[in-house]
């Protein structure tokens, strides 16, 4: 039961509120009115100047606060003044102490824990979409080449042997990455430079790759093609820059597993679309004679002249068009992420927003308001109290002081964790890059034919190691086989990787995935001895062939799906200081480019040697040993914080920022507590 003093005081309060409600106004004192009656609203008598009085001339506010007629002015001034009938939070706490157990206030539930991150939870989706589009255009170009590179090199000199063509394909692939190795650190340093920035480096890479594609498509010799591949690699440092920009757009670690997954996902999408596009558009005069050939729809009497002279120009022009569209998206929509120049005027971004405003202009239309319904709703509504109104107002937090920009010297970048992470990343890039280069060569290599054996002394196949030959697939089938790899990869990245990575963590998922690469590499050459529904020299086909091919690819893609995003996150977080983040990603791209230069060149040479000695699996089994070495090196890697070295004055700035943030959080908690107590009080009365 409540004490009598509390009941009497509550009765007086209820009586005063009932008396005030007859005139439609709840008494308030001060500049704010909490509730307005319908009649006063209609008569525009909204702000009464005098408080409501009792029959004896004493205001209800005086009764509530203990003021009496016989109190002197000095005594009344000494008493604390209240601006509202609603008790203060401290008074509320005292009154709720008299409530019985059956009337106890409910305990507010604990704050809900953050659930698993989904794709829709990612912040800055527009910026991520532009980066994704820019990244997608590059693997689209690279994988498109792989569908027809073997046949384009064959068209330069039809008299060359298959082993020589394999070596040339490895050189072309390695020339691009060799040029990247030389310039990647330079692009990373320029991306960290205030006079250049991330966005400009990204644009240089896109336009450079676009020019390289056009030149490669119109090449007529191996050395011309190599020059344009070198130029494209030298101008392209985009992978490291994109990783840096994603880490600056997505700062919370709980979003990183999905945000950094976007770049490998783009690769898999490119693997799906690129080879199919390259296979369909390569040598269109021979592939579609009724459309582009002699006496055709577009060819006329002699066929399309430029397509006959440059049969592989059309897929390269298509890739250049995609790169150009991506560059336009970056110019007009992507924001600079380098902290020191983020507020610098950007003409392209301003122009893009102006163009967007033309197509998204909104018309403001006004409709008549039903006065009767509005007044009824105002009269019948329960207005929130002053504390609740205050809790709904936007909070203005004190902005933390802008930290002074400091740069870590280049000589201090090389911490133990950085070196171990780069070592493991380099080994991973070497065997994955070698696999990607050898895979399409292996698919295009002619099958073993007992009637025309190559080499001539190798007259029959013997297991477990003495067999040779590829699968003899044409560009269309190569494109489809490469697309199978991409479909498996994109499915795993969308539905499997985020959940497994969240459960295992970045380092463990990275180490476990590395165990699968040796299994896949060991099984690849045995596809040559799978029974085919068609005899050689036709391409290998049949249910068993495609099932075995899909199974081997599934193992390799599962490993790659978990290893590559985890490697990107580990590279990003091993950075010893935020000022060298772009440099770290540039170094990692340089290491990756060096590995992907050595791997394909040596791998292409080794594949050709394996064909000469009648043992096609030689290079694949060397990859098994390399992948095992990478798995052992992963035990040295740990996940860093991204800021392990603090320069002079940074500790003090960080502590000052934390104090300001904690003060803002405490004020928000106090305001929330006051509003909750006010709502409870209103329910009780």
From TrEMBL:
UniProt cross-references to Gene3D superfamilies, sorted A to Z: MFS general substrate transporter like domains
Sequence intervals crossing the membrane: 170-189, 201-220, 226-246, 258-281, 312-334, 414-442, 478-497, 509-531, 543-571
Keywords: Membrane, Transmembrane, Transmembrane helix, Transport
UniProt xrefs under InterPro entries: MFS, MFS_dom, MFS_trans_sf, Tet-R_TetA/multi-R_MdtG-like
Statement: the UniProt record of this protein carries the keyword Transferase: no
Region Disordered, annotated ranges: 1-91, 647-685
Composition bias, Polar residues: 23-36
Basic and acidic residues composition bias: residue spans: 59-81
Protein origin, superkingdom: Eukaryota
Family matches, as CDD domains: MFS_SLC46_TetA_like (cd17330)
Membrane-protein topology: Multi-pass membrane protein
PROSITE patterns listed in its UniProt record: MFS
Subcellular localization: Membrane
Major facilitator superfamily (MFS) profile domain residues: 127-642
Protein name: Major facilitator superfamily (MFS) profile domain-containing protein
Lineage per the UniProt record: Eukaryota, Fungi, Dikarya, Ascomycota, Pezizomycotina
């Amino acid at each position: 039961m409540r004490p009598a003093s509390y009941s009497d005081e509550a009765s007086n309060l209820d009586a005063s509120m009932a008396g005030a409600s007859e005139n439609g106004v709840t008494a308030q004192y001060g500049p704010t009115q909490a509730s307005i009656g319908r009649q006063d609203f209609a008569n525009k008598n909204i702000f009464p100047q005098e408080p409501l009085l009792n029959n004896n001339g004493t205001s209800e506010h005086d009764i509530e606060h203990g003021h009496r007629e016989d109190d002197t002015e000095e005594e009344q001034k000494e008493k604390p003044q209240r601006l509202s009938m609603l008790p203060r939070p401290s008074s509320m706490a005292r009154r709720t102490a008299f409530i019985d157990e059956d009337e106890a206030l409910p305990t507010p539930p604990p704050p809900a824990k953050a659930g698993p991150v989904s794709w829709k939870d990612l912040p800055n989706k527009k910026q991520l979409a532009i980066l994704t589009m820019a990244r997608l255009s590059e693997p689209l170009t690279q994988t498109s080449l792989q569908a027809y590179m073997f046949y384009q090199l064959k068209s330069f000199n039809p008299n060359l042997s298959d082993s020589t063509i394999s070596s040339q394909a490895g050189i072309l692939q390695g020339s691009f990455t060799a040029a990247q190795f030389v310039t990647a650190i330079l692009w990373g340093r320029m991306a960290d430079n205030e006079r250049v920035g991330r966005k400009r480096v990204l644009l240089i890479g896109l336009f450079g790759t676009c020019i390289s594609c056009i030149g490669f498509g119109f090449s007529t010799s191996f050395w011309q093609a190599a020059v344009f591949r070198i130029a494209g690699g030298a101008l392209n440092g985009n992978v490291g820059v994109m990783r840096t920009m994603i880490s600056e757009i997505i700062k919370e670690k709980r979003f990183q597993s999905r945000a950094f997954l976007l770049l490998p996902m783009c690769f898999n999408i490119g693997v799906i679309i690129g080879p199919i596009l390259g296979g369909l558009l390569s040598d269109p005069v021979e592939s579609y004679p009724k459309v582009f050939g002699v006496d055709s729809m577009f060819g006329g009497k002699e066929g399309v002249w430029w397509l006959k002279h440059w049969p592989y120009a059309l897929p390269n022009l298509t890739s250049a068009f995609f790169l150009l569209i991506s560059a336009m998206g970056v110019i007009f929509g992507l924001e600079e992420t380098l902290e020191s120049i983020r507020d610098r005027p950007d003409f392209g971004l301003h122009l893009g927003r102006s163009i967007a405003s033309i197509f998204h202009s909104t018309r403001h239309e006004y409709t008549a308001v039903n006065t009767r319904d509005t007044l009824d709703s105002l009269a019948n509504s329960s207005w929130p109290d002053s504390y609740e109104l205050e809790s709904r107002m936007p909070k203005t937090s004190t902005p933390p002081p802008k930290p002074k920009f400091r740069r870590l010297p280049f000589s201090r970048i090389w911490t133990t964790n950085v070196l171990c992470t780069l070592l493991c990343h380099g080994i991973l890039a070497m065997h994955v890059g070698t696999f990607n280069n050898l895979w399409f060569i292996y698919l295009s290599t002619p099958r073993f034919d007992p009637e025309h054996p190559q080499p001539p002394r190798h007259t029959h196949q013997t297991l477990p190691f003495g067999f040779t030959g590829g699968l003899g697939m044409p560009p269309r089938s190569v494109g489809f086989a490469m697309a199978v790899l991409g479909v498996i990869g994109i499915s795993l990245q969308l539905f499997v990787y985020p959940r497994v990575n969240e459960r295992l963590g970045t380092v463990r998922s990275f180490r476990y995935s590395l165990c699968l690469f040796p299994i896949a590499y060991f099984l690849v050459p045995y596809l040559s001895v799978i029974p085919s529904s068609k005899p050689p020299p036709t391409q290998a086909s049949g249910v068993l062939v495609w099932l075995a091919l899909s199974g081997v690819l599934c193992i390799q893609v599962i490993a790659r799906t978990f290893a590559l995003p985890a490697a990107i996150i580990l590279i990003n977080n091993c950075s010893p200081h935020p000022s060298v983040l772009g440099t770290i990603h540039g170094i990692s791209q340089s290491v990756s480019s060096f590995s992907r230069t050595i791997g394909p060149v040596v791998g292409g040479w080794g594949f050709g040697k394996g064909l000469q000695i009648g043992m096609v699996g030689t290079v694949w089994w060397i990859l098994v040993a390399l992948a095992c070495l990478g798995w052992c090196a992963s035990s040295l890697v740990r996940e860093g914080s991204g800021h392990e070295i603090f320069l002079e004055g940074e500790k003090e700035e960080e502590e000052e920022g934390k104090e300001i943030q904690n003060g803002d959080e405490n004020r928000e908690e106090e305001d929330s507590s006051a509003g909750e107590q006010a709502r409870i009080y209103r329910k009780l009365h």
